[in-house]
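Journal club prep — side note

Before the paper discussion, L.F. wants everyone to see what a predicted structure for a comparable chain looks like in token form. Sequence:
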Amino acid sequence: AWVNLNRQAAAVAGNAPPGTPIERLGENYVTKVFDQARDAGFNIVRVFGHGEETSFMLQKSPGQYDERIFKGLDCINAVAGSRGVRVLFVPINMWLSPHVGDGFPAYVEWGGFPVSESDKFWTDDRIRSMVRNHFTTLLNRKNTFSGVAWKDDPAIFGFNLFNEPRCPFGQDKAGCPAKVTAWVVEMSEHIKVGRS
């Protein structure tokens, strides 16, 4: 049931103007999924908040967002919260192609490096700044339906910074694990400060 949840939510949220009560969207795929989650006893769900393919990307380039997809994520947060289910939000994915925003390879290319130098993701100041800016945008996002900033939204349990972070193949002995750990500590602190 969870496959394509983001795409379905973007379709449901559609052209809803700010302040639209979530109940006005009626019964739909998203409400059914969260009703099933609640009825099954789920209290937290993990939701990908990054692109899937070139036609469906939250962040198309640094700081350039698709409002339709943001509204879909707002819809997910609002519906989850209305069902007593909380969201663990995943903003970056390790496994996307360079042409899909919010993925590890895209940030490397946005930083001016070839994907073959993907270890730069963890240490390059420009890339780390882009990631911090992305996280700040997410934290300050005001939910279309609830009017609550994501950083204050009780429906958002937390941020799972990265889906499956790891050292690029062959770099695990070149000091990469320490770089990944340092990145996670830095970004966790950024999120923590942003939510306080």
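L.F.'s comment for the group: The mean pLDDT is 88. Keep this in mind when we get to the figures.
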